[in-house]
Amino acid sequence: IDGVLLRSSSPLPRARHTLLTLQRLLIPFILLTNGGGKHERDRCAELSSLLSVPISPSMFIQSHTPFADLANSTTKPLADKTILVTGGDGERCRQVALSYGFKNVVIPADIITACPSIWPFASPQNYESHARPLPLPISSPSSSSSPGSPPSRNKNLTIDAIFIFNDPRDWALDTQILLDVLLSDGGILGTTPSLPSPIQQQQQQQHHQTPLYFSNPDLLFASSHPSPRLGQGGFIASFLGVWDAITAGKRPLQYTTIGKPSQSTFEFAEKRLLEHRRELLLGSPERGAAQGEGKGGIRKIYMVGDNPESDIAGGNGYRSPWGSHWDTVLVRSGVYGGGEPAHRPSVVVDDVWDAVQWALEKEGWLDG
């Protein structure tokens, strides 16, 4: 979205005209962004107002939207587990996680308010407005029921999974809390981190690490600033460097990254596009499915983006389970600054209007 339809909060020229043209021609499209930090419904209302084009959640995917599937997964549902959610402004990402079905959501503000010593350079009063009481206390030697007894998951705050929903606003605080959880005893916050030593290396292979999920690998994104700014990918790179330094490179970090260019996010997006197509053509996804509409998928999908590392790499590398073929279109209106892109698109054009015109011409909708 940023760099294709918007620059910060300002619509790019011809963006509105492009979307209205697609809607008038009943050509299904979705908006796939590595941005996030607020509920899809709220972001769609924002976009509809900025672009003066109706955008519904059924045609919109943020970087963290696929996390909703993990709440009620058929294999390892996390809805009733305690999760740590970081990133975004205030407690917006907590609210999003709760709307996805996660019932027990902790954010760094809760932790720093309850335990200021966890990061002594932060001012707890800056977080109090969006902090909530922790569901259980942080483990400490004085919290054990008997001296020398191991901490209990039932009596101490235990993080079962960590989700980076959006770009962290306080890298230092979030880095420290992530380290404390990932190096703890089974996610029990406050237990002594197990740092590597030659004697411990074999035991470390058995170390149970709390699952960690990132939602956006973009190193840079386009904003109102003249040059691209660091995104969540910058935080990931920073955290990996700290992790390797703390563990002396003896314990590879286990983590999952979704968002463009991951296969899982593009598969989620194509599924959403198929559902939106049925809704667009037949009134609802359920009615379309009942009548067999779209059973064979969509023959051709065009991925339009401004970032060669996420948009173009993702579209080029995606393997559709529905058998669709993807062409990639790189626009010059965002992150891409010219020269030979790291991932070669099908075509390079100036903006989103030129991208759609190129696709329509290729499909025979326009005279050459």
Q: How would you describe the overall organization of this protein?
A:
With 368 residues, the chain is of the alpha/beta class. It is built from 12 helices and 14 strands. The chain has helices at residues 15-24, 40-51, 68-71, 92-100, 108-114, 171-182, 201-204, 232-246, 263-282, 285-290, 308-317, 352-362; strands at 6-7, 10-11, 31-32, 60-61, 82-86, 104-106, 161-164, 212-214, 220-221, 229-230, 256-257, 300-305, 325-331, 347-349. Strands 6-5-7-8-11 form a 5-stranded parallel sheet, with helices on both faces. A 3-stranded parallel sheet has the order 12-13-14. The longest helix has 20 residues, at 263-282. It is elongated, with a radius of gyration of 23 Å. The model is unreliable at 201-205 and 287-294 (pLDDT under 50).
Briefly summarize what is shown.
33% of the residues lie in helices and 12% in strands.
Q: What structural category characterises the helix and strand content?
A: alpha/beta
* Strand line-up across the major sheet: 6-5-7-8-11
N-to-C order of helices and strands = EEHEHEHEHEHEHHEEEHEHHEHEEH
Determine Rg (CA atoms, Å). Answer: 23 Å
User: Beta-sheet strand percentage?
Assistant: 5-15%
- Tell me the distance between the termini: 28 Å
Helix % is: 25-40%
Overall number of strands? 14
Q: What does the overall shape look like?
A: elongated
Q: Largest beta sheet, briefly? A: 5 strands, parallel
Number of helices: 12
Poorly predicted spans: 201-205, 287-294
Mean pLDDT: 90
